[in-house]
Design goal:
single chain, about 25% strand, globular, Aminopeptidase, alpha+beta, 11 helices
């Protein structure tokens, strides 16, 4: 198994370069935040205020470690970070490998210092080897992004090659253009006319307004509206709404307010009069936004409140000069967001061998493929049984 973690380090002290794998809560938050500012590629889900909140209370997502890369002493600084768990903790596979700690949002791209990303990537790989790992499984990473390009180059320099396990295309938004023009190009005049008609009908219940909560007190209040809306719909019926699980509710209440302190979280709300009909959580990291979750009041479903909110969010992001792009963080072929945000980027799981011609890597690869096949078979069986019962 992967070697044990180093002992806890008192917050506020400098960490020597050899400490490459630490309990997540022991990582210096100030260094982590500083790395976030210098990150080669944004990832709102690996900001410390978000990931530490996940790690503190979300069922099945606690116990992560921080795989760290440090520049040379004496002025060592954090230049790379990726939350990780053992492959056993991730998938119950008893092999010496590490997997991305899953931050609730579907993006696990590591943070690398843009000033020297190649060195940061190489040192992350070295730190993983030092702690006994034979491979790293990076889950839900942007395959063509600057971070993976840098990691690929670092591995090539060591005669190693990543192995792609699975991938899909995810919706994203180019927020550098005019929002209304983008929506016309994406949806067409006929669909927009129908959505305007629905909005006019929604206005019969009160003036329709789009609100953005930004500061901590606003976010704290608006979050409770979101949580209520999410639990009132199909997620509540399935038992997957955040507020239905104490650990999940504690995480999002802590994370949203903490991120709002640094203007890295917004709660967007669509109202008809005094009634909130849809709400969403949006993270911000550098020039990118991340659309985390959406909740709607199903009583207003015929007016497409979730779509209406997303149209307003699109205009809001396109009008913000600080935002260049937005990640939907949605699954493949998402029926709501895909027709609206027409940009696409590849997301996937990548296995990084840490040693050449290593039989443990081959076993790890085979075990992951077998697990995926078994999961697909199980999902197919469930679908078949449901169809038979209808």
């Amino acid at each position: 198994m992967v070697a044990g973690r180093s002992g806890a380090v008192k917050r506020g002290t400098s960490l020597p370069a050899p400490l490459g794998l630490l309990p997540l809560e022991s990582t210096m938050v100030s260094d982590w935040r500083s790395l976030g500012v210098r990150a080669l590629e944004p990832n709102g889900y690996y900001l410390p205020d978000w990931e530490l909140a996940v790690n503190a209370s979300v069922q099945g997502r606690t116990g992560a470690s921080a795989l760290c890369a440090w520049s040379d002493a004496p002025a060592a600084k954090l230049i790379g970070l990726s939350p990780m768990v053992s492959l056993w903790q991730a998938y119950r596979i008893p092999l010496p490998a590490l997997a991305s700690g899953h931050p609730y949002g579907t993006l696990c791209t590591p943070l690398l210092d843009r000033d020297n990303p190649g060195d940061a990537a190489a040192r992350l790989l070295h730190a993983a080897r030092q702690h006994g790992a034979h491979a790293l499984l990076l889950r839900d990473v942007a395959l063509d992004g600057a971070v993976m390009q840098t990691i690929n180059a670092a591995m090539a320099g060591e005669g190693l090659r990543p192995r792609l396990l699975q991938s899909y295309l995810r919706a994203c938004l180019d927020a550098t253009g005019d929002g209304d023009e983008l929506l016309r190009d994406a949806l067409g005049a006929k669909k927009l006319k129908e959505l305007r008609r629905q909005r006019h009908r929604l206005a019969e219940h009160g003036a329709v307004g789009f609100e953005v909560a930004r500061n901590p007190s606003q976010v704290e209040a608006a979050l409770e509206i979101f949580l209520r809306l999410e639990a009132s719909g199909w997620k509540g019926l399935r038992g997957t709404a955040l507020i239905q699980h104490p650990g999940d509710a504690a995480f999002i209440r802590r994370a949203a307010v903490a991120l709002a302190e640094n203007r890295q979280c917004e709660i967007i709300t669509l109202r008809a009069g005094d009634t909130a009909v849809a709400a969403g959580i949006v993270l911000r990291h550098r020039d990118r936004a991340f659309f985390f979750k959406l909740g709607v009041d199903e009583r207003f479903a015929k007016f497409s409140p979730g779509v209406q909110l997303t149209l307003d969010l699109t205009r809001h992001l396109c009008a913000d000069p600080a935002i260049a792009s937005a990640d939907s963080t949605a699954g493949a072929d998402h029926p709501m967001i895909n027709p609206i945000w027409r940009g696409r980027f590849a997301i996937g799981d990548v296995l990084l061998p840490l040693r050449a011609r290593d039989p443990v890597v081959e076993l790890t690869h085979a075990a992951l493929i077998a697990r995926r096949s078994a999961m697909e078979l199980a999902r197919g069986a469930v679908r078949f049984l449901r169809e038979r019962q209808q």
